[in-house]
Amino acid sequence: MSKPLIGFAGMTHLGLVSSIVAAQKGFNLVCYDPDSKIIEELTVGNLQVSEPQLKDLLYSNKEYIFFTSDASMLEKCDLVYVAPDVMTNDAGKSDLSHINSLLNIVFDATRGDATIVVLSQVPPGFTRSRQRPGRALFYQVETLIFGRAVDRALFPERYIVGCADPSCALPKHYENFLRAYKCPLLLMRYESAELAKISINMFLVSTISTTNTIAELCEKIGADWAEIAPALKLDKRIGPHAYLKPGLGVSGGNLERDLATFCNLANEQNTDAGVVNSWLANSRHRKTWAANILRTILNNYNHCSIIAVWGLAYKENTHSTKNSPSIAAISALNDFHVRAYDPIVSWRESWHPSTQFCSTPMDALDNADALMIMTPWPEFLSISPSAIAERMKGRLILDPYGLLDEKLARSAGLEIYTIGRFH
Fold it and tell me: How far apart are CA 389 and CA 380, in angstroms?
């Protein structure tokens, strides 16, 4: 059987990464977005998202990809993924208006025998509500991670597919496409697949929250989380791949959305979601870590105090600042002067009334009384503690993720604070 022609509708992060990886797997693609400006940029190779390897993959597979803002081009496709990023507000509520609009466009533009797959994150009940008589509609769980999206798309752990009737075989062109990724394939009803995505993130958040809770106690009683984590990874009930890295709360938007969706469903169905509310409270608490330590140490601060901030993105290798711990900390320090640096993120004036955005991390250190390393960008690993000590005025370093060598930092005269270590 010849390979199917694959379409992707929605050229934001999810659709763009997924389509370029599909081209890498040897499929021909029609990549559609109703925004002609986005298509113009992509046609000349300008990406609106930042992911390791993505630009190189686009360049090496451009002959397989046709970018268009003309929906009628989807008529040629055997299989079309509807894959726009679904935006959320600060409460984690999804805005489904764009995916609803795009799904309508795809239904109207495709052939009656074409298979349509919703790839975007949607709440349970969404896909079934969007069925059309005589049309093949599926929901597929996406598990991309900002900063590691290409690797996750190239080598998925498994595919979870929601179906109107999971006892029926998938359309051949859809199954052949999925089989090209050589991973287990799980078929289930729509609602189970939609809730499976939320379930995955809930288990992740439970591990994050437990890790952060224990790490905070380590800081107070003289224990070191870095010594405890290896013991947990060797426990078969927890495992070597468990998320045991302390952090500054849940960020990025996707996890928060799933927790909010679960709480809303629990309220509607009168089931208990108390543990989820506890996770959310713990996340809010952890985001105050940096600002609280800084205020405690610099208790005689004045308006001339200068804080250097390295990193604005909520994690490395992404441009996203959704619920970023760095932005939360900066916003809580509006009575300080801030000198900030991030290799990708552009500064927004609304984040802080008195900030200078710097072109290099070392420039941000000039006259700084303290440094907060809020995003573990790899480039920070190459900067020695002695170089930091020479450039900044003060000695206080908040290094939550432990990028700096603690012994070298203390030898350079720096006072360093890391999550999960006794201070």
Answer: 14
